[in-house]
Every structure is written in C-alpha cells, then in structure tokens.
Amino acid sequence: MSKISKKKIQYPVSPDLSRYLKKYGREVKLRVSYDHLLRYTDSIPLGDTLWVSVIYSQEDLKELNKSLCYIYALLKTDGNISVIEHLYVDRIDYCLFGNSNPFRIRIVNNYNDNYDYFYVKKADASRIYGLELEDVLSPNRITYFVDKETLIEEHITGIPGDDFIKKELHQKHHNKTRLAKEFVKFNERCFIRLLGDMRSYNFVVEVTHDFDDVQYRIRAIDFDQQSYEGRKSLYLPQYFKENKAFVDMAKEVMAEQTVKQYQHEERSRMARRIKYSRYVVKDLYDVMSKEKLSTDEKIEQLKHELAIHYREKAFFKCKTMGEILRENMKTLRNHF
Predict the structure, then answer these.
(1) Domain spans in the chain, listed from the N-terminal domain onward
(2) Interacting residues of 320 by C-beta distance below 8 A, sequence separation 6+
(3) Distance, CA of 283 to CA of 23 (rounded, Å)
(4) Where are the alpha helices (DSSP H) in the chain?
C-alpha cells in the first residue's frame, strides 16, 4: 500500500504558469528574495518547536525592514506605502521542517503594538496551484504573490487543527453538529480539488460567534500536496488518523443521510464558484494540464483509482495531474 510522500518533489514555475500569474496580478516585482533571507548570521531556537529566530547583520536588517514592510503593504493595501511608516519587522523566524522551509515575518504596528505575520517561501508550482485553487474554488479568499523563485503568502488565522482537537473539541460550549458539518464539507472540498495531506496540523479552525450560536470554518494552510499523491484516500481528510476525533464526532451527531446532504450542498457551492469564475478556471486548467506535477507512477495510480471510484473511463485517458483534476471537477456538472 502506498504511503504519503515524506519529501515532495519541488516543481519550478513554468513560463506558462508565470504568464497566468502575471495576467491575474499574482506576479509582482519584490524587493527581497527567499535566498536573501537565507543570509542570516545566527539563530535562536523558539521553545520546543521546529522554528528558529534568525539574526542578521545591522546593514542587512535595515534593508530587510524596509523591503519586508513594503511586501506587507502589497499584501494589505496594494502597495500603498503611506500606511507602512509606523510598521517595523519585529522578528524573522525560519522553519526547519516541511517542503517549503518558510520564513515567518512578524510585523508590528509602532502605535499600538498590534502585530501580524506573513510568509516568504521557495516558489513551488504545486503550492501555487493549490493557493490559486483555494482562492477560486473555496469559500476562502487568500492573497499571495510570486517573483521568480520567491513566494509570498499572507497569514491564515485560526486555531491549528491538532491544538483544537487537544484543547477545544470536547469543550461544552462548542456546537458539535456545526463542527461536524464543516468537517464533512472540508473533506468534500479537498477531494474534489485534489488537495492532499490534510492532517490536523495542516489546517486551522476559525471560530466565529454568531448572534445566537457559533459558526466554524476549517481552512487549509498547507498546499504543497496539491495534485501530487497517487492514492485516492490521501485526498480525503477523513482517512488520516490525526483527524479521527473529527470523524468520531461526525458519526456521533450525524446520520448518513445528513452527511450526504452536506456533501451535496458543498458540491453545489463549488459548481457555482466554477460557473462564476469560469474564465479564470479555464485558463488555470489549460496551464495546469500541461504541467509535470507528479511522478508517472502516482499519475497512473490516481487515475485508475478515480476511474473505479466514479465508474468513469475518461480518467484512463488522462496523462497529467492537471487533466485528472479537470476530469474530477467534471463530476460537479450535475450541479450546474
């Protein structure tokens, strides 16, 4: 039985993908690159985590402060630099784990000490496609920019899924039915758009207090495994042992017909999003279908498993992960 890849292959940004990003305003000229941030002189461990706080020379730090504040302005105000005069870089952290080895930038408002984060990562085509599909097909908007080998991502707020399971899931004030409903919908979104490896530490839970109750939204925060794995179950969060607590809760509070209802609702919403963004989606499919985004072995495995799952022979004709994704999205056509 195949297992999830321990280290995913990094795929470069192709000329076609670069043109797509430029057309839709995702490609910008940045004042600092990922490689520039690697020039730190020392590091300090951040508690019992896989992150370290990195230290730069005074000369580098002065230039980085201006450049990184400008990037923050791009993310938040389309580059209006008048709003960054009171901002400064409080800390730069570096993660030693994962495929993207990100830098986490902490920006502080000098007037009120309020802070925010964004990330600087190595540009990987899989992750970029994952971010774009998230923005177009999910109920969540996300801002990111690419400049050659550098990827900038905004911070996605929420309680990390693994922390939520340990500390929050069984608290009495939470509405288990609404939580289970959101997990079912999240599970469906991941499978339809082929986003893999959604173990609890790769998503966050947003909690919003409504006038009479609490609403929940589960959001992916790791997009490295977009259309990469060969095993169908790796695109279904319900099958990861790390998510068992959510699955058990759903079984406790939901009947099978209710689960089917919520799956149908989410497919209908995705179908509407595709309809409203059909030109963007078409351009994205056209570029992605030409890309080499996985190994031949994984492509063969996934198209065969999905062909059996849907009883649809069209999957056998697919030659790339992009073509498999397009065929998988066609399963929404009954909702148009």
Answers:
(1) 15-154, 159-335
(2) 288, 289, 290, 291, 292, 293, 299
(3) 10
(4) 15-23, 34-37, 58-77, 125-137, 161-167, 176-192, 244-253, 256-276, 278-288, 296-310, 321-329
Q: 237 near 243, Cβ under 8 Å?
A: yes
Q: Indicate the length of the chain as a whole number.
A: 336
Please, what's the b/e burial string for 4-14 (b: 16 or more CB within 10 A of its CB; e: otherwise)? Answer: ebeebeebebe
Q: What is the CATH number of domain 159-335?
A: 1.10.1070
Q: Where are the alpha helices (DSSP H) in 138-210?
A: 161-167, 176-192
For the stretch 89-143, pLDDT in tens is 999 999 987 777 899 999 999 889 899 999 999 999 999 999 999 999 999 999 9
- Is the separation of the CB atoms in 142 and 134 below 8 Å? yes
Reduced to 3 states, what is the DSSP secondary structure of residue 9?
Answer: coil
**pTM for the complete prediction?**
0.93
